[in-house]
Every structure is written in C-alpha cells, then in structure tokens.
Amino acid sequence: MFNESTHKKHWLFPDLAHIDKLRKEAYDKHIETYTPLNPITYEEQSLLIRHYSKELIKFCSVYNPPVPPGTIYTALTYFNRIYLREASIQLQPRDMMFSCAYLAFKVDEYNLSIDQFLKVLPKEMQSLVGHTVISFELTVMSALNCELAVYSPYRPLHGLLTDMKVRHSEEVELLKDKSEKYLSLSILTDVIFLYPPSQIALCAIYISCEDLGIDIEQYMTECLFSDQPDGMKQAIKIVRTQDEILKQHNNKYLGDSEWKIIEEKLGKCRNPEFDPRDPNFTFRNKQI
Amino acid sequence: MCANANPDTHNQDYNPSHSSSFHSQKDSPYSALQQYTDNYEYPYCQDINKYDKQLKIGQGTFGEVFYAKCRRTHRAVALKKVKMEYEKEGFPITALREIRILQLLRHENVVRLYEICRSKSTLYNRERGSIYMVFEFCEHDLAGLLSNPEVKFPLEEIKDIIRQLFRAISYLHSNNVLHRDMKASNIFITREGKLKLGDFGLARAIATSKMQPAKYTNRVVTLWYRAPELLLGDRNYSFPIDLWGVGCIMAEMWIRSPILQGTIETHQLTLISCLCGSINTRVWPDVEKLELFSKIVLKDETRKVVERLTPKVGNRYAVDLIDKLLVLDPSKRITSNAALEHEFFTSEPLPISAERTLRHLPDNCFEMTAPQRPRLGVSHAPKPRETSQMGVSAGMGDRLY
C-alpha cells in the first residue's frame, strides 16, 4: 500500500539539499510577492518552524484521553509539509500548529468537537484560535494537495518489536520505551521526508539496541535480510545517516527568549491578509 | 488522488493530480506530449474549472453530485461537491473520512477517487470556495437499474454482480474499514458490468485492538438496510453490519425493491422479526447485552426467510446464501470470505458479466434521474443518520442517491 501512496510519491525526497531547496524556493516566492520592510530571514523561519514542531507535540500531548502517537505524527507531518510549499509570512507557524492538529485529529478519528479542541487553551485564546483553525482549514488542505493519508513509523515500530519478540524471543519491553523515545525526537527532523516509515522505525530500534547492548544484527540478518546479502549493509548505512541527521538537528533549538524575538519580528512582517486578527482576513481565506 | 487513473496503461508512476491522466487509451494514442503532461508535477489542488459540469445526478449526504467531463481529455467523471455552509466544525469529518479511506484503498470493485479539486469564489460572489471530489464515472447505480423494468438480469449475471460486491466488501474488511452505508443506490455499475462500491461518507476505519469495547455511533446505515444489532443500540459493532446490508441487496436483485421498508426503528425491527424470526437469547445469546433489547416488545415469530424468498428467487443456493446473510446474531452471520466460497458462485450457471444486459441500455439508470420507484414518494424516505461526537450531521439532507 505504501508503495502506491501519495506519501511515497509526493512527499519523499532524494536528499536534504532537495528539501532545503523546496523550502527556500517557497520562502523566496512569498517574499517576492509580498515584500515587507523588515522580513523574517530564511534561517529565522527555519528556527521558528523547528520550535513549533516541538510545540505541536507538546500541545497534542495535553489532551485526555491521550492522542495516539500516530495522530500526532500525522499533525506534525502536515505541519512540516506546509513549509515545503508555503512561507511563514503567509502562514504563520503558530496558526498552522493549531490548524494541523485539528485537521489531523479529524482525519485520524480522534473525535473532538471544536469546543472540546479549544478547551485545553486559556479562555482568552479560545475564540481567536477557533476562528483561525476553521478559516485556515481549506488553505491547509489545499497546500497539502488534499493528500491526507500519512503513514506513521509507529505501526512498523510495533510490528518489528513484536516480530523480534515472537521469532527471536527478544526481551522488548525496555527496548520499546527506548525506541519510542528515540522516535519522538527523530520525527522532528527531515528524516520524515527522506525515508519510508519502516526505515525510520528500524533506525529507532537499531540505535536503541546499541544503547542497551542488545545484539540486533543477528535478528536482522536472520529474519529481515536472510535473502538479501546486501540488505544488511544498506540498512546499517541508512540507520547511520538518520542518526547523524538527528545529532546535527538536536543542537538547533531555540531558547524561550529567542523564539519570542523572532515571533515578534514575524508578527510585524506577516502578510495581513493571512492574519486572523485582520479585517481583510476572512474574505481572503474564503477564496481558499 | 494517489493513483494511476487509467489502469490500462500500466503507468504506475505518473502524477495523478493531472487531468490528462484521465485520458483513456481507447480514445486517442498516448502521445509524447501526453506522457510529458502526465508526468508533470502540479502543485496544489487543481481548479474545478478543468471539468465541465453537465448534469446533476445526485444528492449525497454532504453535497451534490454532478456528471462532468474533463475539458481537455473529455474523460467522464463524477464530481461530488463537499457542502461547506453551516459547518461549525469546519470541513466535514465525513468528507475527510471518505477522502482518506479512498486514498488508502485501491480495488477494482471500489470506486476510484482520482483527485480533489477546489473552486474559487470570485470577487463578485460572496460564496465560500468549495472542495470537489473527482470520482471515476459509472453509468449506472444498482437502485436505478432495479427500478427499471426494462432491465432483466439473468441468474448468471446476478451471480457476477453479487460476487463483485462480496469482493469489494472482503477487501474493505481486510483493511479494517466498515462501509456503514450499504444500499443499492451506493452500488455503481459500469456499462461493462463492473461493480464499484461507492459513497464512503459514513465509512470508517475500525480499531483492531480489542482492548476496550468501541463506542461507534449506531446511527448509521439507511434504515431499510440497517442490521438488527444497530437497531438494538449496539455501539461495538463490526463487519457483520455490512453483510446484513448485502443480504438485503442480494434479495433485492429478485424482489426489485428494498425488502424491509420500515418507517421507524421499531417498525424496522418488527419487519425483521417477521421475516427472520423472533429476536431472543436462544437464537442470539448476546442480544441481552444490548441496550434496547429489554425495552422492546416483539411478537413471537418463526423464521420465514427460505419460505418467503424461494418463490421469488427460485435458485436454492441463492436463497441459502441470503439466509446465511440475514442471520440475526452478528457473530453467526456469514463473512464475506466465506460467502465467496459459497456454492451459489460455483454451481451452474456460472457467473457471467452483466455487460450483455447493460450494453443495450440507452440511458443512465441513476436512481435520481430514473423514473422514481413508488418508495421514493413516501414522506419518510429514510436517510442514513450519523451524529458522531463531532456533530457533523448539521445540514444533512435526505439522500435519494
């Protein structure tokens, strides 16, 4: 199924440079069409998107009963896909964070009414966020090309762990916690645009095994790649590359004071037609 | 969306969101230009103006359905407009489910969703833009065909149609999807006799882990096709609800109109027990766990499925299969995979495509455009009702289609 999906066809790219180029092009396109005085730079935008990716996970985690990790992954994927095509001066990361969460909850059957969705927010924010989420919905869907089906790495993760337990009598309880923790960090990086979910899951397990001193290579050669002599070598290479991306990524989060400065700068340069507080906003978004 | 729109070309990789991909090879040679445009990546949803709306053919749960042609390729499609007015909750979850589920499914007996288009509102109208779902076009729907006295399916063609229906259901169920709106008007049939199950507006993926009982809404499925467990308030139902619907549809192939036309839920239950026998713990042990079982009083009835259907249906294997589908206890109802193994399909006459019968039909036998069956005149024409926790039911109209 994954092989025929839009996820594979339209949202996986050959390398990091390719992804960066898409983002940069989207940024340039919007800066050219709407030229603010003191625009947010591309680097600042990247930092802000990164910050809000993390924030999105935090936001989704306050609901009870807990939002399933696969649903959070869908929201996160939507959020990051948007900025391959759009720029923050149009679609502000903060607005998109709420919009993507609401859309993902609906798509992945985490049933909430809009009022229940807003309830976790401070009272004074609720009506503006509600207005934002509903009015941006079609814009967001359009930016995603309505390709709403996302394959999360959590399913292959649990599949692999079960397989290890059943076919290789591996003790997986500790490994499960550790891998899930690793996954929660790696999905914040661009690996989601580089590798299919099964490989992202394998990486989480492989690295966690290393940390716990579990020999996973025997399982891999015997159960996963028994008929592909080259498979093992390739898999390890993919795992290493992913792990390297995560290591690089981890040093680039913003402190509290830093992101607020960028957010403020963005507030001043954003396109008012896309600002839910602006009177022109509603009409613009009705046109999609 | 994610798809090769023309299964004949074996061109698995081209970009689906482009109109030329609707081009049928039969209409024109597959030129180099065509190949180029097929492979071209278009960003964003396309504008609906690439299609020429020609005729309104239906009224769905959440919007109108049109027959349209791609302006460039002349490929026929069905456009389903997603109704957006009065949606407090934003884009209807039923439409999101349909989009997502159809993006995840691909089967020759499940209607293909080619892509999603949008319309822009102009400066001069104050309307909101809308989203359209673009489907493969099928010439007929089963309800329309059955209401047309000119259409007479011989037994071997009925077998082929029913077998395709079971294949569709079996595929859905193996992917953990419930259709939840089985009825003759949601079954489309092409001129070539290919069956396509459609309208996934009420479909949903169901939880596979049985950690805790599910709490799905039981306000689903058009009343006449609604399974007894739903009518008794079950919220942890599963695949058998679709198979009850198939049983009703299968009988309808001979009776030519819906077999259990209740007016309200209790009347529907009365009709069911008249045909299928009393609902009690002897035939259905778990029924006492259902919320409404203790609250209803039904007369003692004997089961008359075989007795009543034999004179109309004739074929004993057909009657036997219907008998196994219209079983009150969902846990004893036949599954789609078991049904595909049934002797009905392996006994003489063997299934043959309905193409022969359909080829000579001049007009589209859609229920909406066809002469109305008497049942449509009644004021209580049933509608599927879903009031999920999301409250998306606002603005749902009666569906005739």
TrEMBL record, chain A:
Keyword Signal: no
InterPro entries xref list: Cyclin-like_sf, Cyclin/Ssn8, Cyclin_C_2
Keyword presence, Transmembrane: no
Residue ranges that the Swiss-Prot or TrEMBL entry lists as coiled coil: none
Name of the protein in its database record: Cyclin-H-like
Pfam families in the record: Cyclin_C_2
Domain Cyclin C-terminal: 153-240
Organism: Oopsacas minuta
A molecular-function term among this protein's GO annotations: cyclin-dependent protein serine/threonine kinase regulator activity
SUPFAM superfamilies: Cyclin-like
Keyword set, alphabetical order: Cyclin
Entry's Gene Ontology BP terms: regulation of transcription by RNA polymerase II
TrEMBL record, chain B:
Pfam families with a match to the protein in the record: Pkinase
UniProt domain Protein kinase: residue ranges: 51-345
Keywords (A to Z) from UniProt: ATP-binding, Kinase, Nucleotide-binding, Nucleus, Serine/threonine-protein kinase, Transcription, Transcription regulation, Transferase
UniProt feature, compositional bias: Polar residues: 1-16
GO molecular function terms listed in the Swiss-Prot or TrEMBL record: ATP binding; cyclin-dependent protein serine/threonine kinase activity; RNA polymerase II CTD heptapeptide repeat kinase activity
Segments for region (Disordered): 1-28, 373-401
Subcellular location per the Swiss-Prot or TrEMBL entry: Nucleus
Superkingdom assignment: Eukaryota
UniProt: ATP binding residues: K80
GO cellular component, one term: nucleus
PANTHER family assigned to the protein according to its UniProt record, in alphabetical order: CELL DIVISION PROTEIN KINASE (PTHR24056), CYCLIN-DEPENDENT KINASE 9 (PTHR24056:SF233)
Sequence similarity: Belongs to the protein kinase superfamily. CMGC Ser/Thr protein kinase family. CDC2/CDKX subfamily.
Protein name: Protein kinase domain-containing protein
Annotated source species: Oopsacas minuta
Species lineage: Eukaryota, Metazoa, Porifera, Hexactinellida, Hexasterophora
